[in-house]
Amino acid sequence: MAKKTIENVDVAGKTVLMRVDFNVPLNDELKITDDRRVRMALPSIKSVIDRGGRLILMSHLGRPTGEASDSKYSLKPTATCLGELLGQEVAFATDTVGEDAKAKVAALEDGQVLILENLRFNAGEKKGDAAFAGELAAFADIYCNDAFGTCHRTDASMVAVPEAMSGKPKVVGFLVAKEIQYLTDVIANPERPFVAILGGAKVSDKIKVIDNLLGICDKVLIGGAMAYTFALAQGGKIGDSLVEKDKVDLAKELIAKGGDKLMLPVDTHCGDDFNSNCNKQVVKAGEIPDGFEGLDIGPETAKIYSETVKSAKTVVWNGPMGVFEMTPFDAGTKAVAQAIADSDSTSIIGGGDSAAAVQQLGFADQVSHVSTGGGASLAMLEGQEFAAVNLLDEA
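Given the sequence above, the corresponding structure tokens read:
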């Protein structure tokens, strides 16, 4: 599935329109509280400007209602942040395809960067509007997709814009290239044993992923609150645990399909309230008493899962094993993260909570790849096709 990357095209004296994921968190003072997404785009950005290209960056931020006056969703803070990281001024257009954007695109010189205002301030972005896409496409000679977090979407900037740039180079940035390498190429030809660890709250979010991975993995380990839906499917007692009763039949089907491949917790760490100071006990899986809720896999499960991970050659992890933000119910997630870090496997961490857990626990540098997109990485693990990637130039 290898695609041409930004380094494969000559950008000198040309204008590159790059879709990035600058959907950064802002505080009440509209200051960026975590600039990781901006920093992760730097290699692709520098590849263009260091080689004498003119760069236009476009992104969404949050979920505005389409009102351009809603300043809490403005991308202006990202222009300031990127300028500081690059050590040069970064221009900002107060609209996406309006007069200010057109004037600032026309004024761009080689090696300079312009950020357009939030794409979602224009209703055409979510609708995949061809007219809106055509105006964006007319700005540039080259299209580059470096926004993995939105690769599973069909927004105008992801699909209609590259479609409108027929005959012009359409490439991926380094971030998307790396995601494709790990989330499709490695999983398509894994070294074995291939182990998947799936956690999180809802079975419904992961049904297709579990189903797909049962077909290609040697073991699929289940943790998090969705384990209680599986426990209920086996006739167990789950006390006050979070559960999806309408998904019990599906859980039964997955248990039948999985056989020995599907590994479920053998014990549960539970508490009588959702806080660190609650009364706690470890019980066998499916034996959670009334008044208690499961908040983490138990120590025996953590040990079994860690041993399984240590012998793996390829590991995919998506979703924490318990309430990792709260001691002592972070123990199961910690144990699994430690086992992945200690193994010599190719390890791929799905975005969202798994990525946050690995960062928080300090293991990010000890795994092969931490995905930047929760929804997009899940969609890839489901085996979904991405229109936004398929239409780009083959390597």
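The two ends are 8 Å apart (CA to CA). Try to locate this feature in the token string yourself.
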